[in-house]
Specification:
Layout (H helix, E strand, L loop, with lengths): L7 E2 L2 E2 L5 H7 L2 H8 L18 E5 L5 E4 L3 E2 L7 E2 L8 E6 L6 E6 L5 E6 L9 E4 L4 E5 L3
Antiparallel strand pairs: 1-2, 3-4, 3-11, 5-6, 6-10, 7-8, 8-9, 9-10
Length: 143
């Protein structure tokens, strides 16, 4: 049985599952991206060109992460946002894979790999949260 562990990290209750539980819950693609830090190919994810109003949630734990009003076309082929829904929704980790040093974005609630954040976004933050569609679920407004 899954363990929704209430371990406060700031204002965020942590969610933990075994690897087998994550595999059972997620599609193969979502598991590889969200739990194994894979990256989907550019221009292939279901949300890279999505225009609908709504809230993007973590595919693993359903935490709200981004609002559609902060989504923009960065030209990268991945859904891009200039800020999370809340300052405690998305965490950062240093990513030194592939011979680069980048800032990985993770779900603050379950540590799912979401993508990376770069300092080349639009105002007002100047940030580009470059996310994988496979790590997100869009809940459209009014549904």
């Amino acid at each position: 049985m899954a363990n929704d562990e209430s371990t406060p990290a700031g204002d965020v209750e942590k969610v933990t599952r075994s690897e087998d539980e994550w595999r059972d819950q997620l599609t193969d693609e979502a598991y590889q991206v969200a739990r194994c830090s894979a990256t989907e190919r550019a221009f292939t994810g279901r949300y890279w060109n999505e225009k609908a109003a709504g809230t993007y949630h973590c595919v693993c734990c359903d935490a709200p992460l981004f609002r559609s009003e902060t989504k923009y076309d960065s030209g990268s082929g991945w859904p891009s946002f200039f800020q999370p829904i809340d300052e405690n929704a998305v965490g950062d980790k240093v990513d030194e894979t592939r011979g680069m040093v980048r800032t990985e974005s993770v779900c603050a609630r379950c540590d799912a790999h979401l993508g990376h954040v770069f300092p080349d976004g639009p105002r007002p933050t100047g940030l580009r949260y470059c996310m994988n569609s496979a790590s997100l679920n869009l809940k459209k407004d009014g549904e």
